[in-house]
Amino acid sequence: MNFLAHCLLGHPDTALMAGGFIGDFVKGPVPDRLPPPLAAGIRLHRRIDAVSNALPGIAQSVARLHPALRRVAPALVDVVADHCLAKDWAHLGVGSLPSFAASCYAAIAGYRQHLSPGGRRFFEHMREIDLLTRYQHPEAARRGMLHILERLRQSHLATHLEDILDAQLPALELDFAGYFPALIRAVDEWKAETGHVQAAPA
């Protein structure tokens, strides 16, 4: 899952929402120096990723992409998931999308001192252009996928992105509608397993 989905799955706990974003910038063991609520958010982020990687619906979405994209397809499908979520926000989200996006930025800002310099720069850019709200538009999702290819030095594959948000999108939306409820259940199970108690705002 990408940023918007991770934040929604962490809602209403601001530390879990922040961990949904910051978790992408923490590699290896979760550092002991992190505040426990944020560390919990990063662990939830990793549980969501582990569950989503094993879901048949995700595998089905990956298989819909051009074979040349197969190695990077899971990351691309994460961006498509945020686009699907943003498009169907009225049914799946909380309040208006711009209002929820603002609450995400505020949650992350409360823990931004724990971001790497690169993560901080990306967060400021994301907040400045309101990326989470923009994900309802195909062009923002397309740019997100292109950024992934550039980061992985696979820009030559960009021509294979063309039909993902066009011809392939209806099928990808059906996949998303099938697997997203499983991630909601996974979060509930994680909270029950860990005895999670919502943290006070940072």
Keywords:
202 residues; globular; single chain; 11 helices; mainly alpha
Overall spatial form: globular
What number of structural domains do the residues give?
Answer: 1
Q: Which bin fits the share of residues in helices?
A: 55-70%
Termini separation: 24 Å
Q: Which class best fits the helix and strand makeup? A: mainly alpha
| Mean residue pLDDT | 94
Q: Which spans of ≥5 residues are poorly predicted at pLDDT below 50?
A: none
Number of helices: 11
Q: How is the main sheet built?
A: none
Spell out the helices and strands N to C: HHHHHHHHHHH
What is the tally of beta strands?
Answer: 0
Strand content: under 5%
Instruction: Kindly provide the radius of gyration, computed on alpha-carbon positions and rounded to a whole number of angstroms.
Output: 16 Å
What does this structure look like?
The protein has one domain (3-194). It is mainly alpha-helical and 202 residues long. It has 11 helices and no strands.
Task: Please summarize what this structure is.
This protein has 202 residues and is an all-alpha fold. The chain contains eleven helices and no strands.
SSE layout:
Blueprint: H1 3-10, H2 14-22, H3 36-53, H4 56-64, H5 73-87, H6 89-92, H7 97-109, H8 117-129, H9 131-134, H10 138-151, H11 169-194
Helix pairs in contact: 1-2, 2-3, 2-7, 3-11, 4-5, 4-11, 5-10, 5-11
